[in-house]
Write a structure and sequence with these properties.
single chain; 74 residues; mainly alpha; 66% helix
């Protein structure tokens, strides 16, 4: 079961980590652009995982339970 407060906290931590990675690359844009890019990456990943979990895609792109890591690598 999803605990909304925990999910928000974890996603904020993930966004901060992505922002740090983006800022460390040469040619980094404004702070706002970095935050938007990190947020977009998280939203895209959540969307892809939702599609995979609900069998809306043929093959997984993201690792998960059972043999999904192997399938995603293939």
């Amino acid at each position: 079961m999803i605990v909304p407060e925990r999910l928000v906290r974890d996603l904020r931590l993930e966004r901060r980590a992505l922002e740090e990675d983006l800022r460390s690359t040469p040619g980094t844009e404004s702070a706002e652009a970095v935050t938007q890019s990190a947020s977009a990456w998280i939203l895209a990943t959540v969307f892809v995982r939702f599609c995979e979990d609900n069998k809306l895609s043929d093959a997984p792109f993201i690792a998960g339970p059972e043999d999904r890591l192997t399938l995603a690598k293939d």
